[in-house]
Amino acid sequence: MTIVPVTDLDVRGLRLVVRADLNVPMAGGKVTDATRITRFAEGMRPLLARGASLVLLSHFGRPKGADQAYSLAPQTADLACALGCRLTFAALDDAAEAAALLEPGTALLVENVRFEPGEEDNDLTLARRFAELGDVYVNDAFSCAHRAHASTAAIAGLLPAYAGPLMMEELTALSKALSSTSRPSVAVIGGAKVSSKIAVLKHLVTRVDHIIIGGGMANTFLFAEGAPMGKSLHEPDQIGTVRDIRMLATSHGCQLHLPSDVVVARAFQPDAENWTVGARGCPSDAMILDAGPKSFATFSRVLSGARTILWNGPLGAFETPPFDQATMALARMAAELTGTGQATTVAGGGDTVAALNIAGVTGRFTYVSAAGGAFLEWLEGKPLPGVAALQRPDMAA
Asked: Which listed residue, of 313, 328, 333, 377, carries a Cα 20 to 30 Å from 397's Cα?
């Protein structure tokens, strides 16, 4: 099976129904972070220049019905500016008429697809209404590809279906990271809970050479080894899972790396009094909030030999200094390895992107995915409905 990029298509005179992800932060009716709009528009402008017109579908938030607080209308000015073209806006009931009036090089933004009751049910009737708006379907929203919705899955069976530039960028980067022959490969996996990333860890131990484990996840691994946790975040009910992951890692030759020392504090607040203890030395009235300097030294040695680095999740409570030290230092080291050409670095997930932004290294990684759930499910090895819907028989085979 293969996925065909829309950039391979002669789009002149065609009306493209494009699934975008315009679920951007808003406040007071204004876009507060236009990063997703800007990145999306960069891929669309060449298609407009080649004579295509665009019908844009997107969700925004989680509305209960047609709640105007979740309307996409306030985004039209930012989107039109980013696309550099004339942009109109219409509710779905009026979209067919508006789409028919589109000229080459212009675009239409359709109201929030989640206003339609059949969207999240992958309703075929709704998908037909979307399909009637154009000639070709383009999915450019990898971040929504883990959902089988009418605008991401059912519609792909009703029109010739292609992947947009951002979708191809994501698929190429993530595929290379998971199937890279550039070894050693290292995954940095952090975050609060083992239970939320069981499938990720079980899949990755079969694909990479090393996994550095941080955050609350590391606490649970340490607890399974008998380390006291005090008031630290951990999951006592996941001891069996930890042991299963360790056994699986051993059988596949994947080395797991845990903190050997930790930063603890009695209060979780900015600039709280803190100190470093061994991984088994957390006092009963304190909590583990970051990996310590010895841990960082070990992690940096592992990273220094890597040719491929995959990152999802922080090593500590990075949002609250001084518990951001390990995450910031390792992120900057990964960026340096990218800059020297030694390593390919791919990162993704909301907290991860936030941490890299704070560290000032987002633009220095090979690729940073803005996707959250889709990125995690990809790491788990799950087929994504929105991606599967684009696949066609590989005629070259």
From this structure: 377
To which residue do tokens 């996996």 refer?
A: 189
Pairing of strands 261-265, 287-291: antiparallel
Task: Please report, for residues 95, 315, 327, the alpha-carbon distance to residue 261 in angstroms, rounded to integers and kept in the order given.
Answer: 59, 12, 14
pLDDT above 90 covers a percentage of the chain that reads 85
Residue 243 appears among annotated catalytic residues = no
Last residue of one domain, picked from the residues 148, 168, 188? 168
Residues 70-107 pLDDT 10s: 999 999 999 999 999 999 999 999 999 999 999 999 99
Asked if residue 210 and residue 314 are part of one domain, the reply reads: yes
Of the candidates 51, 230, 305, 373, the residue annotated as catalytic is 373
CATH of the domain at 233: 3.40.50.1260
Same domain, 128 and 185: no
Residues 243 and 266 placed together within one structural domain of the fold: yes
Residue 395 has pLDDT above 50, yes or no: no
Are residues 59 and 107 part of one domain?
Answer: yes
The answer to whether residue 231 is catalytic is no
Domain that holds residue 78: 6-168
Catalytic residue (choose from 350, 360, 382, 392) = 350
What are the tens digits of pLDDT across the range 250-278? 999 999 999 999 999 999 999 999 999 99
Instruction: Give the C-alpha distances (Å, rounded to integers) separating 329 from 60, 127, 259, 339.
Output: 35, 47, 15, 15
- Is 36 assigned a catalytic role? yes
For residue 372, is it within any domain?
yes
Residues 270 and 363 in one domain: yes
On the CB side of 34, how many CA atoms lie within 13 Å of its CA? Answer: 15
Q: Is 197 one of the annotated active-site residues of the chain?
A: no
Q: Which of 15, 19, 36, 129 is catalytic?
A: 36
Catalytic pick among 45, 193, 202, 294: 193
